[in-house]
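Re: the 139-residue chain
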Amino acid sequence: MDTKLLEHYRTLLGFIPENIRRRITLAELTGQEESVEAVEHMREILIHNNPLGAKIQQLVHFAMLVAIGETEPARLHVRGALRAGATPGDLYGVCETAAIVGGMPAFSIAVDLVYEALDESGLIAHASNAKEGETHSEV
């Protein structure tokens, strides 16, 4: 497997997802490495060389996955959007748009995924601490 193709996952997500590792292992086990390389090459062209740029591409990717109910891949791409420079406001905008396309279930899924990613990145704790400081200073 071309390590350059796999490096894109590390850059985008910070790691190589387990489903990608399984894809590679199964292809190696069956002697079908070329098929995985073809898929990864297509992803490189469509995602990593996308004219939208990394941040917008990841926001769109996240939104589309939420709209079709693909929670686990959406979880990866909300993190990819954060790594690519998306703000909490950008991500919440996707949540709001998901409500138009997929109704309240899509909105709720998007909110949960965004909250989880922001919490893991420390932004939720930071916002909570800032809010507590405002509350204590008002007393």
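The mean pLDDT is 89.
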